[in-house]
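Reopening this ticket.

The earlier resolution said the output was attached, but the attachment link was broken on my side. Pasting everything inline this time so it's all in one place.
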Amino acid sequence: MYINITDSETGNNKGSCGDLVAYLEKENRLPDNKKQEHWFNGERNNIKPHEVRIGIDGNIAKLGREDSKFFLLNISPSRKEIDFLMDTYGEEGAKEKLKEYAARIMDEYARNFKRPGIQNNKDLLWFAKLENYRYYSHKDREVKNGTKKAGQRKEGPQFHIQVIVSRKDITNRIKLSPQNKSRGRNVEHSKKLGQFDQMAFKQCGETVFDRMFGFDRKLKETMQYANIMKNGNSDQKARLHTFDRLLERGAIPKIEKGWTDRILFNPVQDRPTVLGDIFSSFATNGPGLLDILLDPVQEFGGQATIADEEERKRKRKKKGRGK
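Inline output:
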């Protein structure tokens, strides 16, 4: 499951959302479109485009000209997740389940701010649109090697959901920005400023999906695994690889369904207790193999990772010039 938060797919979220709403209506304008996809939120499934524009544009009390007025969330299930939903619920059923899933994700979006009065999707002003297709771009490998052309529709089901969410809450009083990563200097300061942990929010997409639909996600398919394999050190990667091989061979007992969620998605400080509960029968090898899951790793796609990568590039260039 891929979840991303951007300013806007049209590149401007400091003014009206009208251009974005019009852009996201593109599939409804296709000549071969047989069914109109309406906008939806946690309350309605038949929202008109002008209602979205008026709602978002009118919810900007005390926001300045240069302030963000809204954000765009992209909720994109993997092909394996889409196939699972279609096999379980059928094509139309899969679409409806994805809409229900989007509402649960917006619950998590709200709770992630840790702000009093912001508890679930009903405390937010948001509108979502299910899209059926994706298209090849110049960045895709198939376009680069000449097997596909930019703009050509991708094969197979490509269901995904775009969400426009207001910077202000449903009451038009509280500012909420997922770009605010402040943790504050103490607990009370953090409560006052608010905070948003993008890594935790993105990871919750997997947890919510798995629990909601009973999806059996393998370790290699988790975001935490990708995070460690991309940003972890060589020792961490080697131990995680060993752990994965033991899982495949059945050398680690699966004491309860969803135990990998408990390890991967619990706060770092709680993981020793979780591991102690689950792997009590695996005490001999457990600590050496599983401390990888206790070590902090740079956030996948976070600002620190980007900054560190830039610093590494700068040092490599400097070292090259010194030769």
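Reporter confirms the inline version is readable. The longest strand covers residues 160-169. Residues 79-112 form the longest helix (34 residues).
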